Amino acid sequence: DAKTTQPTSMDCAEGRAANLPCNHSTISGNEYVYWYRQIHSQGPQYIIHGLKNNETNEMASLIITEDRKSSTLILPHATLRDTAVYYCIVRVSDSGYALNFGKGTSLLVTP
Amino acid sequence: GAGVSQSPSNKVTEKGKDVELRCDPISGHTALYWYRQSLGQGLEFLIYFQGNSAPDKSGLPSDRFSAERTGGSVSTLTIQRTQQEDSAVYLCASSQGATNEKLFFGSGTQLSVL
């Protein structure tokens, strides 16, 4: 049980922002939100994670709602190479438990 | 090394044979994970090693599956008496210590059981 709900698939035009939603209504106070992506035929790749504040790095931005029941991963200028399955995962940091990947969202970036 | 290395990249075997899959984690990473991914499915956790602690084997699907990690580095996943349903991509990942927010994955071993 991945404890998150994501749309099965999404499309985005190249150059536009891709906004990938994730619901995690049962998240606990000490659980972080992690995002990974998996490009076809490759292993998953870490993107970003956060607890309650919005986070930004060179790959993406993570917006977490104030009640922490949902979050959005933003790819500001999607490229064709961003076509991948995006996984949203909640987990306690330092818990020693493995990340539990769900089915994720299949993002297709179109020309 | 530069990244997590897995070998072989592809393995075809006959039903009933044993197979061994190898994972070389990033140097200095104390945590190592095995996942598998069946065609069109998400990742299924198999086993987790952290330093010298007892491994978390809660994801192993049957007693035909086992894994070891020698010297805190290289890991081998062994599947005995393989079945067709074992066909999948087996992925290994490593991370620095218990603060394992950032996992680095290998490219996986594609196992096909005929």
What does this structure look like?
The complex is a heterodimer of chains A (111) and B (114). Chain A contains no helices and nine strands. Chain A is globular and about 40 Å long. In chain A, a hairpin with a 5-residue loop joins strand 6 (61-64) and strand 7. Chain A is an all-beta fold and 111 residues long. In chain A, the strands form two sheets. A five-stranded mixed sheet of chain A has the order 1-9-8-3-4, with no helix packed on it. Chain A has a four-stranded antiparallel sheet with strand order 2-7-6-5, with no helix packed on it. The mean pLDDT of chain A is 91. In chain A, 0% of the residues lie in helices and 47% in strands. Chain A has strands at 9-13, 18-23, 31-38, 45-50, 55-56, 61-64, 70-75, 84-92, 105-110. With 114 residues, chain B is an all-beta fold. In chain B, strands 2, 4, 5, 8, 9 and 10 form a six-stranded mixed sheet that branches. In chain B, a hairpin with a 5-residue loop joins strand 6 and strand 7. The chains are: A mainly beta (111), B mainly beta (114). The interface between A and B is medium-sized, with 23 and 25 residues.
Relevant terms:
heterodimer, A: 111 residues, mainly beta, globular, B: 114 residues, six-stranded mixed β-sheet, four-stranded antiparallel β-sheet
